Structures are given as C-alpha cells and as structure tokens.
Amino acid sequence: MTVKEMVLLGLILFFALFARLFRLNYPNQMYFDEVYHVPSSMLLSEGDFQTPFDPEQASYDGKHTADWLHPPLAKYLQAGSMALLGKTPLAWRLPSVGFGLISMLTFYFLLRLLGQNFFFRQLSAEDRKNSAVNLALLGTFLFSLDGLFLVMSRLAMNDVFALAWVLLAVLIYVWRLARGRSIYLLLVGVMLGLALATKWSAWWLIVVLLLHELGRCRFLAKVPFIFFAMFVTPLFIYLLSYLPALLGGVSLADFWTLQKTILLSQLNNPNTHLYSSDPLTWPLNWRPVWFFVAPRDFLPTGFVANIYALANPLLGLYGLAALLLAFMTIFARGRMTPAREMVYLLLTLYLANLLPWIFFKRPLFLHHYLLATPFLLMLVAYFAFQLLSQITDQNARRAWFFNFLFWPFLVFVIFYPHWVALPVPESFVNAVYFWWGNWR
Questions:
Q1: Closest to 79 (Cα-Cα) out of 51, 33, 39
Q2: How far apart are CA 299 and CA 306, in angstroms?
Q3: What does pTM read for this prediction?
Q4: Where in the chain are the domains?
Q5: Cβ neighbours of residue 185 closer than 8 Å, sequence gap 6 or more
Q6: pLDDT per position as a tens digit, 35-53
Q7: Cβ(424)–Cβ(303) below 8 Å
Q8: Distance in angstroms between the alpha carbons of the first and the last residue of the chain
C-alpha cells in the first residue's frame, strides 16, 4: 500500500469511527433488541451458560428476557467486553463498533481485490492497481455513509458481527478464485461457520458459495473436499459455539430442543409489528424501523430525538440504478468476461441475502437487509467508476466524481441526528425526516 492509499483509507476509517463513537453511551439504557441480546450477554459474563440457552426460563432479572433465538458467538464477544469494562452501554456496544470497522476494512480489500484481479484485468499492471485502489476507496467511502450500517454498528445486536464474518468469507473466496488454490476453501468454511454461529441467515451464503464452487469444479474427486470445507466445516464451527453451554450443564436433548424451537420460531411467528416490512420493499428504503425515542422531559422545548434504522436515501437511489445496470450486464450478449463474472457473483450474493426472507412467515424489518447492502454498494461503486472514467475531460470527470460523493455525504450529515438521537427541532423532523409518510 502506498502512503496516499493508507492516508485516504485511514481518513475514511477515522470518519466512520468518529460517527460511531460519538454519544455511543446514549441512550444509557437498553433499546430495541438490546433488551434481549444484552441480558443474555450479561448472564454469560457472569458465567451462566444455562439460562441464555433455555427458552423456558431465559430471564436475566425477572424483567428482561435473554436472547435464545440466535446463536451465541456475538453474545460471547459482548460478554467479554462487559467482563472487562463493566455492564455499561459503552461496554456492550463497543464490540459492534469494532466489527463495524472490521466490516469496512474487509469491504475495502474485497473491492480492491475484485478490481485488480477481475474488473480491470485488461489494463496494464500499474493502471490496474491504481484503478483497483481508487475503486476500493470510492466504494468504502460510500459504505461509510450508509445509515443502516451506521445504526446497526452502534447497538448490541448480532447483525454487524455476521456482516463482518460474511465479508471475510467472501474476501477469502474471491482470493481463492484469483489464486486458484483449493486449500483456501477451508478458511472460507471457517469464516462461514463463524457467521453461522452468529446468525442463521449465513446458511444462504453457505449454499450460494457451495453451489458456485461445485459449478466451477471440473474434477469429481474434488467434490468431497469442497463439501467438507464449505458445509461440514461451518456446521462444525456452529456446533462448537455451543460447547460452553454443553459444558455448563445443557444436555444434548436440551440442545436439540433449542435448535428445533429456534427453527419453528424463525419460520412461523404469528406476532405482528408496526414497523415490519416486506423484503421486496427494502431496496426502496420504504419502511424504516423506529429503534428509540428520547423522553421529551429531558429535551429543549420543541425538540425531539429519535434513532431510526433507515438507509441513506440517496444511496438507495444509487443502488436501484446499480441493480438495473447489473441485470443489463448479466443478460447482455457476448462472452463471459472476468468482470461480468464478478458482477454476476456480487448480484447473486446480494439476492441471496434478500430473496430468501420472502418465504418467512414472521415479522421482518429493514435491518435484516444489512447483509445484502455491501454487495449492492460494490456494484454501485463499480458501475459509477466505469461510467465516470469514460469522461475524457479531466476537469469534468473530477466534477462528476465530486458530485457523486458529495451529495450522499450531505444527506449523511443531514440524517445523522436521526440515526444517533441528536436533538432536532420537531418542525425540521417533520419536514425532512418524515417527508415521506412511511418514514414516520
């Protein structure tokens, strides 16, 4: 990495870190699904490896129900943070901030790898490297401006942890495609296992990458190894994540009962929620989720403060345009170039983290869209870079690049209070944040 690259990447990461650490301890109580995840992590930090895995008595203090619905890996990390720093909002949210930055860094190197080995393969070595770096910086900056990603990496849930493991798995898999060494598939399987031990939605990525690898396989003798690396290994890591519970007194019968209970609850939950939404509306940013409302007694007169899980509206429009271009690229006539192959892979990964939710009969929310978001933003960055690079006039090209980045940044600045519960005049909230009725 050059000094210029490190400085620019460092500035993006510093910006993202500041946006996440600012007022991270507010609110100073659990909010949204922290009321499930944090009590479970508190129990684990106290050495209780039974209650958080028992759907019948999973309560921390008689008031807060501990989360048993999700695998335990993220909760172990949150419990470790609380064991070191105390049971404070800062302690239970800091791991999410850390994994948010890991996600961004992985996103950067994944996009850089895609650029250098696939998207710009036709260029000379020097131009290929420069284009890959610029593409990665462009995409990572856009990723840092996404409001949904920001909100989910500021509270103690498991989504941003799953995001980090998923991106690491894809990074290693793309590295395997670039280098051609099958041994990397074992490491892919480990990362997929860590993702699965964090959230069950990792299964969809396991299936997609396994089928993609089997489709590329030309030798039948390699199939057992592929299956072992990309299916058995993740399953083993998943089972290993429950080892503390088994050693802590949970029986095998209770473990299997828990797995069946999780499955039934995920597939068919009759509950309803005011802020639930249909998965096909998520790319439209149609219905955000109201995470927190600050008590008015502690705010200046005429001010409100909320936390909404809402994507950056302008990035949402960029994403819709990128989807259209991706489908046009896939179905265009001509040979399958390395660039088209990677567009196909990114589009597949995006759809794999979106479409399966359609079949779930339970309340679903915009934050379930988080795992799909980075793959769409990679497509946004790639198509924008390709289109803007075709502008021959250097000054005009710089102006277009500036505008392409400036306006999402401005939207980020405007909506930032809406994502972190900064007090804002209610008239401004109604005119800007709630100008679309479904955003209220």
A1: 39
A2: 12
A3: 0.94
A4: 3-250+277-439
A5: 173, 176, 213, 225, 226, 229, 230
A6: 989 999 999 999 989 888 9
A7: yes
A8: 45
